[in-house]
Amino acid sequence: MSTPTYLFRRVLQAAAVILIVTVVVFALLHSLPGGPARGILGPQATAQQIEAFNHEQGLDKPLPVQYLYYLGQLAHGDLGTSYTLNEPVSQLITERLPKTLLLTVLSAIVGLLLAVPLGMWQAVRRNKPVDYVITTLSFIAYSTPVYFLGLILVLVFSQALPWFPSQAPQGHTLGQVLSDPQGLVLPIAAGAASMVAVFSRYMRAATLENLSEDYVRTARAGGSRSRAILWRHVFRNSLTPVVAMLGYYVPVLFGGALVVEQLFNYPGMGLLFWTAAQSSDYPVLLGCVLIIAVATVTGTLIADIVQRIIDPRVKAGRS
Amino acid sequence: MTADQRPAAPAAGPILRLDDLGVVFTTQSGEVPAVRGVSLLVEPGETLALVGESGSGKSTVALAAMGLLADNARATGSATVAGTEVVGAGEAALAGLRGRTVSMVFQEPATALDPLTRVGKQIAEVVRNHREMSAKDAAAEAVELLRRVGIPEPEKRASAYPFQLSGGQRQRVVIAMAIANEPALLIADEPTTALDVTVQAEILDLLRRLAAETGTGVLLVTHNMGVVADFADRVAVMYHGEIVETGPVEDVLLRPSHEYTRRLLAAVPRLSVDGEDLSETPRAAAPPIEAEPVVELDNVSVVFGRGRGAVRALDGVSLTVRHGETLGLVGESGSGKSTASRVALGLITPNEGTVSLFGTDLARTRSRARRALRAGVGVVLQDPVASLDARMTVGECVAEPLRVHRRALSARERQERVAAVLDRVRLSREVARRAPRELSGGQRQRVSLARALVLEPRLLVADEPTSALDVSVQEAVLEVISELQAELGFACLFVSHDLAVVQHFAQRVAVMRAGRVEEQGDTGTTLLRPETDYTRRLLAAVPVPDPVVQRSRRTERLATLAAGRTEATA
Amino acid sequence: MSTVIQPGRTPGTATAPDSAAASGTRLAVRRFLRNRLAVVGLGVVVFFVLFCFVGPLVYSTDQTHTMLHQVNLAPSGAHWLGTDAVGHDELGRLMYGGKVSLIVGLAAGVLATVIGTLWGAAAGYAGGWIDAVMMRVVDAGIAIPALFILLVVSAITTPGLGGLVVILGFVSWLVPSRLVRAETLTLKNRDYILTLRAIGGTHARAITRHILPNSVSTIVVAATFQIADAILLVAYVSYLGLGVQPPATDWGGMLSAGLTAAYSGYWWLILPPGLAIILVVWAFNAIGDGLRDAFDVRGRG
After folding, report:
1. Do B161 and B201 reside in the same domain of the chain?
2. CA torsion, points A303, A308, A313, A319, in degrees to nearest 10?
3. What local confidence, expressed as pLDDT, does residue B454 receive?
4. At B352, which CATH number?
5. Do B127 and B246 fall into the same domain?
6. Are residues B284 and B396 part of one domain?
7. Closest partner residue to B98 among A223, A237, A313, by Cβ?
8. Which end of chain C, N or C, is more open, meaning fewer C-beta atoms within 10 Å of its C-beta?
9. Cβ within 8 Å, pair C194-B346
10. Where is the ABC transmembrane type-1 domain (chain C) (predicted)?
11. Please, which pLDDT band fits residue C6 given cuts at 50, 70 and 90?
């Protein structure tokens, strides 16, 4: 498949996925107590107000018509208005999303930088004590709820040892957030832990599989040393499937950010979402879900394209 | 290549000396000896073929000589390459030896190269492992090597990834890596087994030329007696981890002294070539009279995929298999022979053309009627492992067609039928209670055959039923099929890449190439006096297990090729 | 947290040739027992099941009434793990809450696996555009992180125990559906299925007699990881305020209730439930890892 055809198909696929997400969000909107009217007018609205609103907004029309209307709104970037903050949801999200992206991208980078070498080390030292220790630690890191891990981190590295602040940097702009790198350490650590666990396991598996491939034997038969083979051939071949996995991991990263932001009071989208949930601010909740889904789908798309670039076989459609 | 970079191979003495070599594998069930007391010599410039069936330990010997054994293997005794001991040597010593003094060519060109590294770079890596050279010079050297192994447009191909090359070209790249530093010894482990016959002939020509040019000694590991006859000076025969016979190729292949070698050679199907007595090939005799067609493909085309990526797998193919006869479907990989058999089975619906089974057009039958028709079909596929569901017993596997089409049978009647058909394929009735994984490859294929025959079908479709088996096992399985065919009278569509097998087994043959039927006719005529160039080339490429005959066939083939080339350029 | 990826989906060991005589089950048991982490994991699970279900019979405590005369007591001879903010014995509460965590986690994990298996097998076997549409639905499900959906649900309603299981099952069936689909795709092109179809066997027979039995090991392994994830998810659910309502509780509920107390130095309110969650989730993951080795299943992402 040629690159433009591929891109076209892949984007079409992503669009289909997002369309399905809008159906889910629309369904959630209609399963709210009192329906979307309650969501928009707020918990204090009376039954008469709701009925009037429903009529005015065409919410007494058949569901498919309403869905099309909802899609039309989305197309105009209208995600509704937060009734607690009294601001358009789209504006709230535009403000908060970059900060969440910053946190998740940094966590992902730190996580990968640790996970990849750890996984390779485990594979090379397979079934040796190092392998068992790292495996056990990975499983523990994976099994720990992020909020518990965050709490322990704060208790140890902020309370017992006053190394890092227990609050994430505040501030409206990315620059303000980045001006306090100390404050980012614990949130990133909490966000990266399970990523290290998952991806070191993946890297270990991929490296083990590649170490037993025929091409390793060919390289050895040509007089290459183990270390050279590991870095020149096995590393790259093992990394490709791990990059593909990265796409699937994006939603997990966002899920983690939700908890981390709440825990460290980081003013990103997760925190916005959390506070909205506490006050039943439905327009914000559903707007965030939609945007997170779009971000996830985009992340997966990027991971696929990156994989296509680093693995020539994928491009030829024979991976 | 300058003189000082040549390995310090002493002109005197063998380049490879194995002395009482033994290899033991440590497995869950204890220590398993794979090779015992193997001693042999390879002199500079000579080719020694190490032959044997699967599990004989021949590949293990080759790997031990390179110090490339798996971690769970332990070598004893001695293996010296150009005077350096390999058994027990450390990584540094081995790395110094590999790729410079001794090199290796492997069986599977599809996986032997790093898929993400350009082939030129992989060759340059071997060059730079042993020679002080800039990356640029090594890259130029890699292009030169690609030229030597006969890759067209080597400058361009050097920057290709392995998946962009054909199997034969990939094997040439592996060979280029092997000869990069002009080694004194080349170990080739089944170098042509994964390739088509015409490509096999080219690769063997290449190896022979390169070895002659540089005086390289070759240890050729193979199961194919034709390849041995074509290439080897001397032969060592392995059986159960030991060498049972060694000698010059003419002696071993024409006057074998050991009982095992005699049995092995007797089981090898030989391609009868023009001028030989045909009465020896019994199956080729007596084409049946115009019997009714059992399965008929009429002008069938199959297209896989859509748009620009579409592949025309079959293009206007017409085939007929009649009652009681065997039609051999031959061709190289990608010729469409397997696709054609799957169309006949109704597993692939053709885009154009019609398929009729037992006189009924498949496209015009409803699914229930079609299923009933298919009760008359038996199937044996290539892979002995994948053909049987590992979660069932052999008895359940064989009984499955009965459960589908003879639902009224009681459990006892079913068991009796299974037992009877197991008798027919010469398996003991006890086998019914065992798991497929407890059986050997040959036994499993007989179980598949039993399953195919349990409904007494009118048509048997066999897609490469013996190509995963050793020759002696292959012979037994084919014998069972032809005896049962004589007894039960079913028609057989027999797909194979092996022309010799088809010549012995089928009355009629269809040669396929690139989705078309190149020619078809009686086996006796078509494979002895082919009408098309393609069939002639195909036949000429098949090595026969007789060194004298093979030598003249090779000369003849090369002359024809050369003539063809001059004609083409003229 | 319901991850899309389970940790360590390794093909495990390249299996050495096994003696043909050994039966499949015995072989699998032997391979499982060789994975020491898995055996320890099995021990941990057995311990916690006994602890939560048999423990209260031996160590009986009052978990319904508030006892304000004994709040936030440090561990002592009378209360081995101290007491919480309303005076419940913490050790007893650990058993009491563990029951809920284990039952909900197990039920939700199994439910998710069942839904995922049916969906994945149907998509994989049908193929073509049906497969494409069904998998886009899975993609859409994966695109919305489970925690976000759960938080939205918690803003709308407070479910009972059964409702909780259903909700958890419905947000986490996506991973097993992908796995089972991949397995079905491989199996449906196996030679024995082709043979069956060629001789006129029905699709129903192919699915029930061959594809499902051969997917059992994949499904069992997926279910084990799914249970681990579900127990973890239950812990998050309480943290999100969607968990079981007091006086009932689960480990996640105990943990989030103790969060604020942790800063006051009441470590016994958070460490025991936290460690219990980690240990049990770890144990199920280790068992899953061992089962995968034992069955020689390849779990792909």
Report:
1. yes
2. 30
3. 92
4. 3.40.50.300
5. yes
6. no
7. A223
8. C
9. no
10. 98-288
11. very low
Q: Could you tell me if B111 and B207 lie in one domain?
A: yes
Torsions phi, psi for B439 (to 5 deg): -100, 160
Q: Residue C165 is part of a domain; what is its CATH number?
A: 1.10.3720.10
Q: Within a domain: residue C35?
A: no
Same domain, B446 and B462: no
Identify any residues that bridge with B26 across adjacent strands, giving them in sequence order.
Answer: B31
Domain boundary among B456, B471, B489: B456
- Cβ pairs bridging B and C (under 8 Å): 84
Q: Which fold has domain A96-273?
A: MetI-like fold (1.10.3720)
The answer on B252 and B294 residing in a single domain is no
Q: What is the pLDDT of residues C223-278, one digit of tens each?
A: 988 899 899 888 888 887 777 777 778 888 888 877 777 777 777 778 888 899 99
Average pLDDT (A121-149) is 88
Nearest-angstrom CA–CA distance, B284 and B505: 7
Q: Which of A215, A216, A239, A314 to mutate to test the interface with B (most CBs of B within 10 A)?
A: A215
Domain-embedded: residue B423: yes
Residue C297 banded pLDDT, cuts 50, 70, 90: low
Give the pLDDT confidence score for residue B102 in this predicted structure: 93
Domain that holds residue C123: 93-296
Distance CA A13, CA C140 (A): 11
Q: Which whole number is the average pLDDT over A145-150?
A: 87
Q: How far is B448 from chain C (nearest CA, A)?
A: 9
User: Minimal Cα–Cα distance from A60 to chain B, Å?
Assistant: 46
| Same domain flag for B160 and B42 | yes
Cβ distance C156 to A140 less than 8 Å, yes or no, reads no
Q: Is C59 a domain residue?
A: no
Q: List B50's β-bridge partners, or say none.
A: B221, B236
CA distance B195 to B332: 9
Instruction: Please state, in angstroms and as integers, the Cα–Cα distance from residue A242 to each residue in A6, A117, A198, B337, following that order.
Output: 21, 13, 10, 38
Nearest chain B residue to A311 by CA distance is B116
Residues of A in contact with C148 (CB under 8 A): 254-255, 258, 273, 288-289, 292
Q: Which tokens go with C261?
A: 């107390």
User: Exposure of C66 by Cβ count < 10 A (0-12 exposed, 13-18 middle, 19+ buried)?
Assistant: middle
Q: Report yes or no: B288 and B323 within 8 Å, Cβ to Cβ.
A: yes
> Which residues, at least 6 apart from A156, have a Cβ–Cβ distance to it below 8 Å?
none
User: Which of C1, C259, C289 is nearest residue A255 as measured by Cβ atoms?
Assistant: C1
Rounded distance between C-alpha atoms, residue B352 and residue B318, angstroms: 11
| Rounded Cα–Cα distance for residues A233 and A217 (Å) | 11
Cis? peptide before A169, omega within 30° of 0: no
Query: A2-30 pLDDT, tens per residue?
Result: 677 778 888 888 888 888 888 888 887 77
Sequence-ordered list of residues with C-beta below 8 angstroms from that of C138, at least 6 positions apart, any chain: C119, C123, C174, C177, C178
Closest-CA distance of chain C to residue B186, Å: 29
Q: Is residue C98 part of a domain?
A: yes
Q: What is the pLDDT of residue A39?
A: 61
For residue B230, the enclosing domain spans 14-266
- Same domain? B433 vs B497: no
> Which chain B residue's Cα is nearest to C199?
B374
- Using N-to-C axis directions, what is the helix angle for C271-295 and A129-143, rounded to 10°? 120
B356, pLDDT greater than 80? yes
Task: Decide if A220 and B100 are in contact by the 8 Å CB cutoff.
Answer: no
Lateral strand order in the sheet of B377-380 = B377-380, B459-463, B491-496, B326-330, B508-513, B516-522
